[in-house]
User: Fold this.
Amino acid sequence: MHDEPTVTTLAPKAIGSSGTPAPDVPPDVQASAATEAHTGAAQTSAVPLHILVLLAVVFALHWGREFLVPVLAATFLAWTLKPIVERLYRWHVPRTVGALLVLGGLCSGLVFCAISLRDEALTTLRELPAATRRFSEGLAGLYREPGGAVSSVEAVARELERMTREARTLSNAPAPTPELRDAPVVVAAPTSSLNALVWSGSLTALSAIGTVASSLLLMFFLLQAGDAFRRKLVRVVGPSLSARRATVEVLNDINVQIQRYMFMLLVTNTLLAFSSWGAYVALGLDNAAIWAIAGAVLHLIPYLGALASIAMTSIAAYTQFQSFAMSLLVAGVTFGLMTLIGMVVTPWMSGRQARMNPTAIFLALLFFGWLWGALGLLLAIPLVAISKVVADRVDRLHPYAELIGE
Assistant:
């Protein structure tokens, strides 16, 4: 009885593209390579979804601006006034009473300033239409002088009209008759009546009053609540101690950023008001306090507010002095102060406080100004500062924090 030979079967080796056997690859390396390939494919396929989500968020922000803007403004103001309420609470003043005192003091201060400047403001408003008309007439008289810019443009227009008539004659095209050419242009009167305009203005005023009232009520409830929402948010994030600690740090940083930003606005606008008032008094401009306060209020709207303030002060100076030289001088002084404080100091202070680069701040102003208008310009910097605080503590958002950081 003979023993049968033992046959050993060898597994075929992998053949590479060049026909040579491929080297043996450990299983863990193969699994790692497959995982990386799957992750890369998943990230690539998720890019269109991220773009759609981003567009949906932008649309939602634009669609809900009438709700979001007052809520955000009231929240930021409540965060700004919160330290005062907390100080009163430590002095054994209930939060409800403290919130009423703070909001009452704020509204009383605004009303007192309005009453104190009422006469000068009414005088300025009564003179503004006539001042604008005299300024436009002065510009027209300046440019309609013989050899001026307007005269040259009119001469060029007449020459172009003559050349057009000759070209039509040469091409046998029917030229317009003198009756049609010289016929006056009739502008149809608008269909809206005075009653419709008054009604529309009344609705706008009522809407503004309602928005202000709802914002004040929201500020009151936020100040009255104290740290209640803060504690609720910490409990919502879960039982993890690290998650709660990170949430508390984020809320603290957001609170600090908002308070610093509001303090920066207070300092820069107060500095602008006093410096403008001193400059206007030195130049002899009437109602210097009104123009200084108006410039400080308009300065809250970055860039566009400066242009409006320059236009108003230049018109006021021409109306008073009847001189374009004084008008340009006042406009130049306003532009210099606005440039120094509004376009240099404010972005620099904002960037230093929020640790953001000025380019990111400017792009944020452009985006939120397009999204929400003038109020979006006011809310842009605190919103970007909040987003950076969150991105600094979320690993997946570190690229965004690095992009807008200094």
Q: What stands out?
A: The two ends are 89 Å apart (CA to CA).
